[in-house]
Description:
By secondary structure, this protein is an all-beta fold. The protein has strands at residues 8-13, 16-21, 50-59, 66-75, 80-89, 116-126, 141-142, 145-146. It is built from no helices and 8 strands. A two-stranded antiparallel sheet has the order 1-2. A two-stranded antiparallel ribbon has the order 3-4. The model has no long low-confidence stretch (mean pLDDT 81). InterPro entries: Integrin_alpha_Ig-like_2, Integrin_alpha_Ig-like_3, Integrin_dom_sf.
Amino acid sequence: QGQEKLSCNPKKENGTHVVLCELGNPMKAGAQITVDMELSVSGLEDMGDAITFHLQLRSKNSPHPSNASVTVTVPVEAEAEMELRGNSLPATTVLPTSWHWVEDSRRLEDHGIKVEHVYELHNKGPGTVSGVTLSLAVPHLLGDHVLLYLLELGTAGDMNCSHHPALNPAQV
């Protein structure tokens, strides 16, 4: 009828983590108890898509002892918010009207003004992420004309990168 806080104690039993809660002793015949438990579990990144709890009610009644148990499976849903930020250095570039592209040149300045595009992918949490794929499409041709001469692609941190074969075709 009333609400009481339970005193629960975590312990290890046979290599598993156990939380033991004392519901009452002695309990009146025919008593019904509803228990709401809130568990905080960390380190679920590698648990798959569900976690299973085994709940057991142990009674030491002298005429009829019992060990009723039930298994509860709870789905695990990871939550993480990703944010992509980007910059171009310099932010604005204007080619002089006298500039023209020099075919088959190996000099960098004959292919245009250098612009560096930097992209940062941030995990805003709360969960961790792995196996993220970022696909970035850069328009490098306008019809048959070179729009952007793609010189190189680099990464920072622990990531793998693959690129289009048209990267630095003149080996500048």
